[in-house]
TrEMBL record:
Residues 68-234 form the Helicase ATP-binding domain. The keyword Protein biosynthesis does not apply. The keyword Nucleotide-binding applies. GO terms for cellular component: spliceosomal complex. This is DEAH-box helicase 32 (putative). GO terms for molecular function: ATP binding; helicase activity; RNA binding. Keywords: ATP-binding, Nucleotide-binding.
């Protein structure tokens, strides 16, 4: 190993000398002097040297020698720097150079990100700067899309994709350097990955782990990795901060007023507005679009752009800015790194608050909380613009902000995480060295839920069913539903339901004047049995539209373009999201492939028959028996059996509209309950109490808290037992093998 490091240091010295010389060769005749790319063996292009000059001007470049020295001699390194220091793109490339210097003896480089689009954008930029082809030497992996090859030496991927890879490669032996970017955001996936890497590093001393943070790492992160070198990058000077003293209730209107005032002032530069929720983003975009009519043409165009968390495709790559209009980026994302490529950004408007989903294990539901951002987030947002820009903070300067972002693992449902850790054979989370250990109550609830789903055996380890459930990129309840559908011969329909629920909502929420028309369009897909079946109708109609007979008459070269246009128009006509339906289609294909890989049966579609409807409900109840509610007063107040809370059906539900044609069912199964201002259950379908009794495990039923609804179920259970005994006396003893009404599904 020492010899490899020495070779790497010599390589590094030569590399620095070459890059320093090459960056200054603006007028070199490339026909006379050819330098070859060590990654693909081809001559460097002129663009490589142009980008190299830009790279060397980044703040991160000053730390290159220090970083490479520490990478050669230390196993863990922490690098801290703001969004525009260049850390996310440059450091992974340097790690690739390090791995190349030791001839990839220990593997390649992987760099994790928290957001899909950011992952793709960084991979494209890195490939451009390294002068190689995307998908070859540089690649990326995000859910439902992989762009890599056997030649890939640097791969960007989302944290959850790397965790799933660990199911087949627990020690991550394909990698010599693992770069964990955005470690400061403390997402569940990042915290689990960091906890597992601590143990992996002990067993693989040759492995290098680099943590990248946008803010100065807090005492917990530094304390977790004792004696780890910290490289603090010199960022640009923070912009002038203007504190408006606006109350948290008025920040939305204040933000929009500021946007218009900046535009009327004719000061150059784009604007980014940090709001709290996605609803505020859409509303702000609609208002600014309407206000654009009243803006004088000589002020230029004002272009509002929505940047939703987890969705991308709207941010430009470097060099794609259009100076003819002022762009206003509206976002609620906590990730300031999304704007690393926006060079013309000159104004930041910061509401100072964010939306957090806080999970309550007692009621198995999320509550939406609007909380202040941390001090480190506030500082990162100020550094998005240079010293000539301005940051408008829509809160008083003396507002007490928390010093760090609260870890998501303390506020999230960790049932899927526990299932994954059990799959990694980590009994009791002993080997996962969490920075912040999960809440004991949340952990007990997760273990209890997995036990109810028959994912654990009597010793608390994964059962055969649990192992199969962990193969699916789904929440455990939906994975169990999918397994049960194999028994009830309704796999095709349940896969569609699972895909539609895993994808973003397919319903578009239009402006107020079009909402009545949108509701009428959505009514055409509604199924009398409920929302799960409505989702099947929507997906079937979407696929049928793609296969219209007239498409067969189109020239083969234009089929894809015509199909895309046809699907887009169809979605616009019915106020549905094309991207959401395309995502659902891709998820459905992935789930089908997984079923075939583990050799589970995939039934033929038979949607519409009475038997198929009953079987779909049985499969849903096999996974979601913990999410059943009863209308206690025939007016839409649904009492949830597990925790005795009362909620209403969401307005977008088939039953939420309260149409006379459908009415309100007494017993329902729901997919999600959000304990917040609307206090609604979402994606609701009608069930019978007899179906619930048949599918719910007996010990779950007996553990339900006392209630009138439980008494009703108990009476049905008792009558069923008496009826069974009466039939048993009248009939032949040879029929003793008939199962009782209380028998649970075999798959459980």
């Amino acid at each position: 190993m020492a010899q490899g490091i020495t070779t790497g240091e010599k390589y590094w010295e030569d590399r620095v000398a070459f890059e320093t010389e090459g960056a200054g060769q603006e007028h070199v005749e490339y026909d006379d002097v050819l330098a070859f790319n060590t990654f693909d063996g081809l001559p460097y292009s002129s663009r490589y040297y142009t980008l190299l000059k830009e790279r060397m001007a980044l703040p991160v470049w000053k730390a290159k020698c220090d970083f490479m020295d520490k990478l050669a001699n230390k196993q863990f390194i922490i690098v801290s720097g703001a969004a525009k220091t260049g850390r996310s793109c440059q450091i992974p490339q340097w790690c690739a150079e390090f791995c190349q210097s030791v001839q990839y003896q220990n593997g390649m480089v992987v760099c994790t990100q928290d957001h899909r689009q950011h992952t793709v954008d960084l991979a494209l930029r890195a490939a451009d700067e390294m002068d190689v082809n995307i998908g070859h030497e540089v690649g990326y992996s995000i859910p439902l899309e992989t762009c890599c090859s056997g030649d890939t030496v640097l791969r960007y991927c989302t944290s959850d994709m790397l965790l799933r890879e660990m199911m087949s490669d627990p020690m991550l032996e394909h990698y010599g350097v693992i770069v964990v970017d955005q470690a400061h955001e403390r997402t569940v996936s990042t915290d689990v990955l960091l906890g597992l890497l601590t143990d992996i590093a002990l067993q693989r001393p040759e492995l290098r782990v680099v943590l990248l943070t946008a803010t100065h790492p807090g005492p917990k992160l530094l304390g977790h990795y004792r004696n780890v070198p910290l490289i603090q990058l010199e960022g640009v000077c923070s912009a002038e901060a203007v504190y408006t003293g606006t109350s948290h209730k008025d920040y939305f209107c204040s933000a929009l007023r500021l946007v218009l005032e900046i535009h009327h002032s004719q000061e150059e530069g784009d604007i980014v507005v940090f709001l709290a929720t996605t609803q505020e983003i859409d509303l702000a975009r609609d208002i600014l679009h309407r206000e654009e009519v009243n803006i004088s043409p000589h002020l230029g165009e004002l272009l509002p752009i929505s940047v939703h968390p987890g969705l991308g495709g709207t941010l430009p790559m470097p060099g794609e800015e259009d100076g003819r209009c002022r762009r206003v980026f509206l976002t609620s994302s906590p990730n300031e790194d999304l704007f690393w490529a926006v060079h013309m950004l000159n104004f930041v408007i910061d509401a100072g608050v964010q939306k957090r989903n806080v999970y309550n294990p007692r009621i198995r539901a999320n509550s939406v909380a609007i909380q202040p951002i941390s001090r480190s987030q506030a500082e990162s947002r100020k550094q998005l613009v240079g010293p000539t820009g301005k940051t408008f903070c829509l809160y008083p300067e003396d507002t007490p902000l928390p010093s760090e972002t609260r870890p998501h693992i303390l506020e999230s449902d960790i049932t899927s995480t526990v299932l994954f850790l059990k799959r990694m054979d980590i009994g009791g989370l002993g080997r996962c060295d969490f920075i912040d250990r999960p809440d004991p109550e949340g952990l007990m609830q997760a273990l209890e839920e997995l036990d109810y789903l028959a994912a654990l055996d009597d010793d608390g380890n994964l059962s055969e069913i649990g192992i199969i459930m962990s193969e699916f990129p789904l929440e455990p309840q939906m994975a169990k539903t999918l397994l049960a559908s194999c028994e009830f011969d309704c796999v095709s329909e349940v896969i569609t339901i699972a895909a539609m629920l895993a994808a973003p909502s397919c319903y578009l929420v239009p402006s107020m004047e079009l909402r009545l028309e949108a509701s009428q369009c959505h009514l055409k897909f509604q199924h009398p049995e409920g929302d799960h079946f409505t989702l099947i109708n929507i997906y079937k109609a979407f696929k049928q539209n793609q296969q219209e007979p007239y498409l067969s008459l189109i020239d083969a070269c234009n089929v894809h373009y015509a199909t895309l246009n046809s699907s887009l128009k169809w979605c616009q006509d019915y106020f549905l999201s094309l991207s959401a339906l395309q995502t659902a289609d891709a998820i459905r294909s992935e789930l089908t492939d997984t079923l075939k890989r583990i050799e589970l049966p995939v039934s033929m579609p038979s949607f519409g028959s009475k038997g198929n409807i009953i079987n779909i409900k049985r499969a849903l109840l096999a996974g979601f028996f913990m999410q059943v509610a009863r209308d206690v007063d025939s007016s839409g107040n649904y009492f949830m059996l597990t925790h005795k809370h009362v909620a209403q059906i969401h307005p977008l539900s088939a039953y939420g509209t309260k149409t006379p044609k459908l009415g309100l069912p007494e017993w329902v199964l729901f997919h999600e309950y959000t304990f917040s201002e609307d206090n609604c259950i979402r994606t609701v379908s009608h069930i019978s109490p007899e179906e619930f009794i048949q599918m719910a495990p007996q010990y779950f039923f007996f553990n339900l808290p006392p209630s009138e609804s439980k008494d009703i179920l108990q009476n049905i259970l008792d009558k069923g037992a008496e009826h069974y005994k009466a039939k048993k006396i009248k009939k032949s003893p040879s029929l003793d093998s008939i199962p009782e009404v209380t028998a649970s599904c075999v798959i459980q």
